[in-house]
Amino acid sequence: MWKTIRRWFDPAELRSVGEPPDYRFSLANERTFLAWLRTGLALVGGGLAAAQFLPPLPMSHLREVIAVALLLLGAAVAIRAVDHWARTERAIRLGQELPASRFPAILALAVGVGALLLVVAVLMRAVGGP
């Protein structure tokens, strides 16, 4: 595990593997990484917004649970982004098949389930009154 994490911070080690690829592939990989990083930042921002601006919800501590869940999901997306970037860059340099990932599906399910839970909370508040 530490070897994998070390690769994230050691571009010389990454560049010592395989052959230098067409720079367009590396740039596309970097753009994908940055898109994932923006997603992580948006989730962190949503978590902070939930903690600061959501009114108290009908269920005790629901606001805090939402905020913490968004913050943790944002952190997971950011960490997963750098890992996927490094594994993809390595595969490109070695001429291997790009690594498959279930993470986008897991993230989509987490966001979908979270949205449905929020719909339930909003409806409970609407039915319960102000």
Automatic annotation (TrEMBL):
InterPro entries: DUF202, IM_YidH-like. It comes from the Bacteria. One of its GO terms (cellular component) is plasma membrane. It is a multi-pass membrane protein. Keywords: Cell membrane, Membrane, Transmembrane, Transmembrane helix. The chain crosses the membrane at residues 33-53, 65-82, 103-124. It is found in: Cell membrane. The keyword Transmembrane applies. This is DUF202 domain-containing protein. It comes from Micromonospora inaquosa. Residues 24-91 form the DUF202 domain.
